[in-house]
């Protein structure tokens, strides 16, 4: 199954069905706000790091809004990679409108990033939902390691794997009166299959197939460790960062920030 090729087609179709104006005014927030598009905890994590004169990349950067925000911290250059060509085009347009000339965007399969980018970046960033689009994290994190300079930093800000156990509002299994009930296995092996568009971006429609995957926290940590990176820090939070607020503060780990360093 060429799930990556199918996901590319589904993402590009979703952008063609995007809600009116989606992403078109991101440049205004980039011009007028401090680190827009990052939550408070992630913004604090980024501010604690020294980006001045450094090179940064975002894998699965979508329309580039987070990487472009990151450039406020003084990075010398930024490179965003994403598989969807039309979404990447919007990222480039946003950079131009915001006057950010030291950030470029490349459309490609992340696993096929050209070798010319190996040993190129001081920081590589993944954000919400990005790693779910890969069935096997080992080749993904090996590509991260290949592209990082020795001593370079991987940052992941994402949904916590426990979120995959919880039914979302709108699903038949969801019960607002029993929010402590888990429905799905933490160790789920089957992919998630969706054919209703991409909710945060597009209207609902009968779409091409999106295929994503669950990963346990141990799978994430081990894949990074097996790719010549050491885990520096893991922070977990009891609030969601994009799907729903109904489970916030209920005792579940719902999001996390992971920092890893490529071995020197």
UniProtKB/TrEMBL annotation:
<dbReference type="InterPro" id="IPR029063">
    <property type="entry name" value="SAM-dependent_MTases_sf"/>
</dbReference>
<feature type="domain" description="Methyltransferase">
    <location>
        <begin position="61"/>
        <end position="163"/>
    </location>
</feature>
<dbReference type="GO" id="GO:0032259">
    <property type="term" value="P:methylation"/>
</dbReference>
<dbReference type="GO" id="GO:0008168">
    <property type="term" value="F:methyltransferase activity"/>
</dbReference>
<keyword id="KW-0808">Transferase</keyword>
<keyword id="KW-0489">Methyltransferase</keyword>
<dbReference type="InterPro" id="IPR025714">
    <property type="entry name" value="Methyltranfer_dom"/>
</dbReference>
<protein>
    <submittedName>
        <fullName>Methyltransferase family protein</fullName>
    </submittedName>
</protein>
<dbReference type="Pfam" id="PF13847">
    <property type="entry name" value="Methyltransf_31"/>
</dbReference>
